[in-house]
């Protein structure tokens, strides 16, 4: 069902936990020798109490509202769906991604308004593995978001209060003893205070009853038991809520009049985890994480329809690494025991991203199901650096689940060679698998016999530097996606199975990055993505563009230190319009007399107009009674461009005349926000 409201860098090979890594955006020092990835054997002995420079640069990016994780949309290969939510990365679907917070799983890391769930004060660093990631990551066929929260600083009690039109939050941090410290972040969305309840539906037939409300929190405490041992406890959670009314002329309500009326979406998650780390002086490193994760999603709409999904995940994840000369060998694994509770009363539509419309096979379903799925991943990797210019990572993984009873052995390989000073070529490849989405394997609405989704990734890249402050990288990639679900219509002999593994996908593209580190008072980057993502129905041999296929994406980002206290920045985004299917006519709705349905032309053969947006950010630092403070202004879509997000029937005119009329929906207009932050 459509959302009720519209609201980093890809590594070529995953590095072993604990190995020191520097990436293109991580160093603002003009005197440093930057290449895309420099890997140094050995384990980090110091703590992670400071935010990396790469995360800090993304925090200051215009359009991110000070959100380093949310700023990934300005990096190559990342596409945000028009309805908001999780991103698609390099031609894969959003549900193909997996998210980790300090080694613990997270169901979602973005609020519906496209900002992340993380306070800028707690993200130490994060890595987006867009393709070709290593064997320690499982249950992902698209991308992996590995987010590390920084360790608490053992210092005097500190409080930081931040408030803007988007949200308000408080951050506290303090030492507890000579060897222990903690911090707590808690934030609450405020946008509902600035968006009033609508008196009547908008042009899309939606009346806002309650604008998006969101909350999030992170807590972390760490105890350094000895020089080589540490123990940490992490808590994290988030929630999203919105309420609206689908009016008479809403697109969904016209197709399905019983969907009209009040609708709500309520989602939250909470996770708790304990992490033990041991790092010895003789290059042995081990880590063990025990975590519990609970996710709840409730959607209600129309004539007493609802979908309630509950997930509880108990997870154990760990590894042991040992350095032998110029080899670092790691053995590790992950075990997840997931309990899915599915409770629904809804109209069943059997469809996937391959389908143009979801109006076939309408039928009422009332179902309460509980499923237990155990997922396991065991891996072995060898990171070998034969010379100071060459590195090789070879890995093998056994991954699968006991519900579909699919277990696969997935090889992984990554190579990096600096063949001349400051110029590095890298390549990687691997196989991947993940459990099917719960909605496609639940009895009564799905096929419990579906097989796991599979993928193969291959990358080839070149990186270098220009002068002392410029770096660049070019990376090509290819993905082969198999066992994707196909929605079965009534013409198929096995239509009662609802879904089959009869869709394949191919993704190819190139990401180009030019990065300017902080010198001469400014920094920034230009990122270009050229891509093609397709899906093929193996039963008909029909090939279509993927719904989120975006051939061209350009991002230009620049921040300028105007004075000692003023920082100004801008971000310009240009991208191809989203693939869509032209509506060429209308036909009577057989389920509802006097209603009409669209008649579609060739699937995904048309594109919406190109999308462009200019964002602006200004920040000024000052002091209040001797306390550090800052004032900031964010303006999204500064030029107030009307970007077309959708094209649908104009049902008001269609119903009046019985003829074809179309209307366009546009994305968010200019959106200003001001805020202030004070540290006590």
How would you describe the overall organization of this protein?
The chain has 680 residues and is mainly beta. The chain is built from 5 helices and 37 strands. The protein is globular.
The N- to C-terminal Cα distance equals 45 Å
Number of strands: 37
- What Rg do the Cα atoms give? 25 Å
- Count of DSSP H/I helices: 5
Classify the helix fraction into a percent range: under 10%
Largest sheet, strands/sense/barrel: 22 strands, antiparallel, barrel
What's the topology here?
Elements: E1 19-23, E2 37-43, H1 53-59, E3 78-79, E4 88-89, E5 98-101, E6 104-106, E7 123-129, E8 144-149, E9 158-164, E10 167-177, E11 180-189, H2 191-194, E12 206-224, E13 229-246, H3 251-255, E14 261-279, E15 284-301, E16 305-324, E17 327-348, E18 363-387, E19 390-401, E20 406-420, E21 423-434, H4 438-441, E22 453-466, E23 470-487, E24 499-519, E25 522-537, E26 542-545, E27 552-561, E28 566-575, E29 579-580, E30 583-588, E31 596-600, E32 606-607, E33 611-624, E34 627-636, E35 644-649, H5 651-657, E36 662-666, E37 671-679
Parallel strand pairs: 5-8
Antiparallel strand pairs: 1-2, 3-4, 5-6, 7-8, 9-10, 9-37, 10-11, 11-12, 12-13, 13-14, 14-15, 15-16, 16-17, 17-18, 18-19, 19-20, 20-21, 21-22, 22-23, 23-24, 24-25, 25-26, 25-27, 27-28, 28-33, 29-32, 30-31, 33-34, 34-37, 35-36
